[in-house]
Amino acid sequence: LKRWVRHLRIKKALKLATRIQVLVSAHMTKLQRLLRGVTAQDISVIGNWSTFEAYAEKELGLASQKVILYPGALNKDKNQALLVKAFAKVAKEFPEWQVHIYGKGTDREVQALKRLIARYNLSDRVLLKGYADLARPYAECAFVAFPSKTEGFPLTIIDAAMFSKPTVMIHDWIGCGVVTTEKAFAASLRKLMAEEDYRTKLGAEAKAYCLSHYSREKILSLWEEALAKALNGTPINTHGNS
């Protein structure tokens, strides 16, 4: 009976939300069952935390490759051009290093990025890997680059932290990683590429930070607080970090 009452209370609270985001696809299925008949809900998946968490614990022993990983949609807002141009400035100093770009984009966007890569003679160094399961690339890369100018709270950084990998970015989206500027992006890449101990230290700090702020337990406690407010008639902030 208590479980059924809790079910009804959660459903009542969720009806007050205009948009719901979940971290794992299985949660979306559960919410759709819970909210059967509630047509106003817009539920979207924003990550695969549980999958990466399990993989990270299993595969942390994988040797890091000399790869800069970029995962995300291919478009101008994500600013892959900055990553390509910055890498071009340091590529000759680090001939063994590569950039692996994972993600989807329109044919026009993909072709534009390929032309930029070819312009800098990096076709064999900056590789467009398409869309794939990213768990192993995260486990094996040296670090992650996130040059986006527009997206806040990127799961990219949390995913990297699960594998104890640092992220270089141009905004302090989450509170961990190397925060730089567009002009200094190449210098930041150089430092991360050159100093393995620096990468290891930052990666460990990133994981510790994200586990303390964005662990499953922390996220669920935030949801409990939000649901409690909703049950008391206070609107849920579904567009911020809650």
Structural write-up:
The protein is α/β, with parallel strands linked by helices. It is built from 10 helices and 8 strands. The protein has a 6-stranded parallel β-sheet, sandwiched between helices. Helix 4 links the parallel strand 3 and strand 4. Helix 9 (196-214) packs parallel to helix 10. The two termini are 29 Å apart.
Distance between the termini: 29 Å
| N-to-C SSE string, H for helix and E for strand | HEHEHEHEHEHEHEEHHH
Tally of strands: 8
> With helices defined by DSSP (H or I, 4 residues minimum), what is the helix count?
10
The proportion of residues in beta strands is 5-15%
Summarize the structure.
By secondary structure, the protein is an alpha/beta fold.
Summarize this structure as a short list of keywords or feature phrases.
242 residues; alpha/beta; two-stranded parallel sheet; 8 strands; 48% helix; elongated
Detail the topology: elements first, then pairings.
Elements (H helix, E strand, L loop, with lengths): L1 H13 L5 E3 L2 H10 L8 E3 L3 H11 L7 E5 L8 H11 L7 E5 L4 H13 L6 E5 L4 H6 L2 E4 L8 H8 L4 E3 L8 E2 L5 H10 L1 H19 L1 H16 L11
Parallel strand pairs: 1-2, 3-4, 3-6, 4-5, 6-7, 7-8
Helix pairs in contact: 1-10, 4-8, 7-9, 9-10
